[in-house]
Design a protein that fits this description.
Structural class: alpha/beta
Helix content: 25-40%
Largest sheet: 5 strands, mixed, barrel
CATH class: Mainly Beta
Length: 128
């Protein structure tokens, strides 16, 4: 076999391996109810339940953050995140969580915040 054939073959095998690895880590969008029934990793989009307690004390444990999120179906659930609280968390419009349900709470492994744009007011003024 020529050397070029070996290189192309190795690249194909590597590409297939990367695709398989990426597909195994994919999670689907859902709700707390769906997360409860599947037991698999899901992504949940929701808003911070501002009327509920948020727990974060970095002096005691900087890697424990607890809050309540209301999903798109209106269900509010406690969320536990074993990392530090994201900066400007309270300012977020929408929150996307990745994780799974465990003993009645949602254990988040990743948090993505959609914060309000600082340009919204300027856009409204320009349209007027």
């Amino acid at each position: 076999m020529k050397r070029i054939h070996l290189i192309i073959g190795a690249m194909i095998v590597l590409g297939i391996g990367l695709i398989i690895q990426a597909s195994g880590d994919m999670s689907t969008y859902g709700t707390f109810q769906e997360a409860q029934h599947t037991g698999k990793k899901v992504k949940i989009v929701g808003t911070l339940a501002r009327d509920k307690e948020m727990k974060y004390n970095p002096e005691v444990d900087a890697n424990f953050f607890s809050f309540y999120l209301t999903d798109e179906n209106g269900e509010t659930q406690e969320v536990i995140y074993h990392k530090e609280k994201p900066r400007d968390f309270e300012l977020s419009e929408k929150i996307v969580l990745t994780g799974q349900m465990h003993d009645g709470t949602f254990r988040a492994t990743d948090i993505l915040l959609k914060c309000p744009s600082k340009y919204k007011d300027e856009e409204l003024k320009m349209k007027s």
